[in-house]
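Comment thread on ticket #2218

A.B. wrote:
> Attaching the input chain for the structure job we discussed in standup.
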Amino acid sequence: MKTLYIDCGMGAAGDMLMSALLELHPEPGAFIEKMNSICLPKVKISRKTDVKCGITGTHIDVTVGGVREDEHMHGHSHSHSHSHEHSHSREHTHMSMNGIRNIVSGLDIPESVKSDVLNIYTIIAEAESAAHGRPVEAVHFHEVGTMDAVADITGVCLLLHELRPEKIIASPVRTGSGTVRCAHGVLPVPAPATAYILKGIPTYGGNIRGELCTPTGAALLKYFADEFGDMPVMKTEKIGYGMGTKDFEAANCVRMMLGETDEESTDVYELCCNIDDMTGEELGFACDMLMKSGALDVFTVPVGMKKGRPGTLLVCICGREQRDSLTKAIFGYTSTLGVREHICRRHVMARREETIETPYGSVRIKRSGGFGTAGQKAEYDDIAKIAEEKSLSLKAAKALLGVE
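C.D. wrote:
> Ran it. Output below, let me know if you need it in another format.
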């Protein structure tokens, strides 16, 4: 599986993400030319080589009407939704969502990319609305609404459209710490809009004082990342470094790795507990509720416990995203006082479902393949319905239909 891994150990901003993706592109020069021809009003994009802590990478410069965005207080890029101080006097355009829609509609890019750009702006608008208590349509973008930020977001969306990774994984996001000064006053890092966007995403502050993750960077990660966590086992083919503008004791960059992962192997969690004081009906109900709560599988095993008491080992298998909610559910639906957690590598066959028409009705067939073998199985409910209607056993109904 073609997988993109994004290392957010120094946060993320729009220009840094675009710069790192550009290094992964097979024809970066041609892509810059394309970006300069998609009808972004007054926008000129160029790239340059930059070095941070001995690491060489790319930094993308965006000029609007011949004026380059200078270094902001957060040190990354121009992708921020608050009015920061600048060393030049150019006024920033304040735009509503409707203004953004008008700009994006006129761009010479695929419709799917336009949709991605607008979806990302919607994420930012909803965050600004929540942070400042305004309706979404009343939100006016400050720096996020300027053409240089539109270029960043559009560039990232178009690069991902052309690179076409099948899966995107991002590391936990380092937000920075301290405070940031903006049009609303001095705010904590991460800024309120950024914090809202990052809800549900693993983050940490770290020891660097300053804003490392901007609202634009957070929105791009939230929209495109399929999951957040450690780098998977992968055969890396390309590495890209997107450089920020400010220097820290650590290399101020986003690193991306593009390569192949095994699509048939994933990490799953086994959540286990021993129980000796619940009835079979109570355990059965708990298992049903855990499955309805998102578990991949739930099963029980008879075990012998201390003092010779018979008991039950309950095992719940789930993905990373469901681990916390299912742990809570186990405590809620069982009498256990503790849950053990194990990380396992799960190998699965590729699966698909199709429906076949028979003289006796539709039957869903589950087909599987991989690891040098293949199989198929008819859906129980469909076979059982036909067996009941024809007063047949399940075995006889399968034989009648010619299915396994």
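A.B. wrote:
> Thanks. Noting for the ticket: The first strand starts at residue 2 and ends at 7.
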